[in-house]
Specification:
The protein has 389 residues and is mainly β. The chain has helices spanning 2-13, 125-128, 134-142; strands at residues 25-39, 49-65, 68-78, 87-90, 94-108, 111-118, 147-159, 163-174, 182-184, 215-223, 231-240, 250-262, 267-279, 286-290, 296-300, 303-316, 319-332, 340-352, 355-367, 373-388. It contains three helices and 20 strands.
Length: 389
């Protein structure tokens, strides 16, 4: 037993490159950001002000062999509404949750089979949009987390001319097990003002919360074209059954395109675009609807939601400048809300030792609680730390 413990300690203290050929191996990455969002001149005073919070993830993998591993991701973010009320708040309702915990097996180099808890293969920008807040907005709008099931990834084409193309498919249900527990800030379902609760239940409803493996996602990704270096694409589709509060199956589609133009060895520009559409968004949930005569009735509300992102980032050595535009449009049959639009301009720099900083300004058109549109603007900033271990 003592010898096994000494071997494990040696593996943990030895760089991964030096451990080649020795298993098990442990590897991981920290990717965290301290974000600050400040909005001024807002019609709603409770939402005006500044909020600082942590957002990011800590990923780790236990590699049992070259083809078998256990991978996990701890996600850190606020789990409730951030309302500065014309002040400055920090780390309010900060929470953490297990986003991924999967067993990954590669029977051959081009095929990967996985099972456990994961994020559905749908959309791309929620993982790596440039800028400060574009990634977080995409994360909130269409990242499908809490998926419990299994799937496969197949690299069906790898060619120097035609590029590398991956096909990913998964079937899943919403995780209601102990793995869905929220850490730090915990609230029972369905506390108002919270987006995540201490543990998922059937009562909270929502698309995919069916208790059965009848939710499906498929994605196609491609890059590494010799005729177009820097070009990559993403296409995906998802369908989720309605939960206890829904009346229809939800369907979603995503398309993303990126191209990095290298002007010189140190100067380059990344152009990025993504469009996501949901039909029967939310599973056409039942809501209280007031008719023209003032009567209140529970009605299934249909919604088509479109989330669009356009942007560009220019990098010169350690410096970068980013401009991004996003629109969240929700066409609803009742209880309508105006489209929200965000324009962000920022500059940033790598600082070394894994740290980087970005700062800029955003212009926001947002949906007010009374159903009208409001406008605001203000500074945004993030201090990031990213390092592998």
């Amino acid at each position: 037993m003592r010898r096994a413990l000494l071997l494990l300690a040696a593996l943990l203290a030895t760089p991964a490159a030096a451990q080649e050929g020795l298993y098990p191996q442990i590897a991981g990455e920290v990717n965290l950001g301290l974000y600050t969002n400040a909005l001024t001149r807002m019609p709603d005073q409770r939402r005006q002000g500044a909020a600082s919070f942590l957002f990011g993830e800590i990923a780790a993998g236990l590699h049992l062999s070259p083809n078998l591993s256990i991978q996990g991701i701890l996600h850190i973010e606020p789990v409730g509404e951030q309302e500065p009320n014309d002040g400055w708040i920090a780390f309010r309702r900060q929470g953490a949750s297990l986003e991924n915990l999967v067993l990954d097996w590669r029977p051959v180099q081009s095929v990967s089979l996985f099972a456990g808890k994961f994020s559905a293969p749908f959309g791309r920008g929620h993982h790596d949009f440039p800028g400060i807040f574009p990634m977080i907005r995409a994360h909130e709008a269409y990242l499908v987390t809490e998926a419990l099931g299994f799937g496969a990834r197949w690299t069906f084409l790898s060619d120097p001319t035609f590029g590398e193309h991956d096909l990913t498919a998964a079937t899943f249900t919403l995780d209601r097990t102990f793995l869905s527990e929220t850490l730090i800030t915990r609230r029972r379902c369905c506390t108002e003002g919270y987006e995540r609760y201490s543990r998922n239940t059937a009562a909270q409803g929502g698309p995919g919360n069916t208790g059965r493996l009848n939710n499906f996602a498929v994605a196609l990704d491609g890059d590494n074209f010799s005729w177009a270096p820097g070009l990559s694409y993403h296409l995906s589709a998802i369908t989720r059954g309605q939960g206890s509060d829904g009346t229809a199956r939800e369907w979603g589609y995503a398309a993303a395109l990126r191209y990095e133009a290298r002007w010189t060895e140190t100067l380059r520009t990344l152009f990025f675009a993504e469009h996501v559409v949901f039909r029967s968004a939310g599973g056409r949930p039942v809501e209280e609807v007031v008719d023209s005569e003032g009567n209140i009735a529970d009605t299934g509300v249909s919604e088509r939601r479109r989330f669009t992102t356009l942007g560009a980032r220019t990098s010169y050595g350690p410096w970068r400048a980013t401009i991004a535009w996003q629109q969240d449009q929700r066409k609803r049959s009742a209880n309508t809300v105006p489209a929200e639009r965000y324009t962000e301009i920022s500059v940033g720099r790598e600082l070394g030792w894994g740290f980087s900083v970005d700062a800029g300004w955003q212009f926001v058109r947002y949906a007010r609680d009374d159903g009208s549109a409001g406008n605001a603007n203000g500074p945004v900033a993030v201090l990031r730390y990213q390092r592998e271990f």
